[in-house]
């Protein structure tokens, strides 16, 4: 008879999904309350950046992302989502002072599209391509400089060879001039 070991239970994480959601909701409400109408701001909270956009009509949105996510892309996403939301949902249905409990169907599509800022934002894509081109150009310039140094070495060696061959020619001519052919 063999004995089996009991299955290991996963360790509890410091945050459950509910506490993360509560953190995001509380932080978002606080930032929106403290932001002026018609303003955009980025607030650092722990290791995250909270990007908030409050429109003049008091409709607000918050994107919580890591510090590497480009701010410009986050604000583009907020502007697009808030514009579409305001067109699809009557202002009378907007909840006041609390997060929207309205199911906004286009949000999931925007969030999945904006997971990769390079693909979602043309400016970020162009910037990434420029960065790649800059690296390639830098490497090419280094190669050219190395080749230029090698060419300089070849030129100086050929000059030395030319000088040596002239000296050899003169020496050979002197030695051959003493002898006469009959």
Percent helix: 55-70%
Strand order of the largest sheet: 1-2-3
Q: Using the CA coordinates, give the radius of gyration.
A: 36 Å
Largest sheet: 3 strands, antiparallel
Number of strands: 3
Give the terminus-to-terminus CA distance. Answer: 116 Å
Query: Strand-and-helix sequence, N→C?
Result: HEEEHHHH
Class of the largest domain in CATH? Alpha Beta
* Contiguous runs where pLDDT drops below 50 for at least 5 residues: 1-14
Count of separate structural domains: 2
Judging by the overall fold, what is the CATH architecture of the largest domain?
2-Layer Sandwich
Q: Which structural category do the helix and sheet elements fall into? A: mainly alpha
Q: Which overall shape is indicated by the principal axes computed on the Cα atoms?
A: rod-shaped
CATH topology of the largest domain: Beta-Lactamase
Strand residue content: 5-15%
**What's the average pLDDT?**
76
* Helix count from the secondary structure assignment: 5
Fourth CATH level, the homologous superfamily of the largest domain? Longin domain
């Amino acid at each position: 008879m063999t004995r089996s070991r009991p299955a290991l239970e996963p360790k509890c994480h410091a945050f459950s999904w509910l506490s993360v959601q509560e953190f995001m909701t509380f932080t978002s409400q606080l930032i929106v309350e403290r932001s002026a109408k018609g303003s955009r701001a980025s607030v650092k909270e722990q290791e995250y950046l909270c990007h908030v956009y409050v429109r003049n009509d008091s409709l607000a949105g918050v994107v919580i992302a890591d510090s590497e996510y480009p701010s410009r892309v986050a604000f583009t996403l907020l502007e697009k989502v808030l514009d579409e939301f305001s067109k699809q949902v009557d202002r009378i249905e907007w909840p006041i002072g609390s997060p929207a409990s309205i199911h906004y169907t286009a949000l999931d599509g925007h969030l999945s599209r904006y997971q990769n800022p390079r693909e979602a934002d043309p400016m970020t894509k162009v910037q990434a391509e420029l960065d790649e081109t800059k690296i390639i150009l830098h490497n090419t310039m280094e190669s050219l400089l190395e080749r230029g140094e090698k060419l300089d070495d070849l030129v100086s060696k050929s000059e030395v060879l030319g000088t040596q061959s002239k000296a050899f020619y003169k020496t050979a001519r002197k030695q051959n001039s003493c002898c006469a052919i009959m």
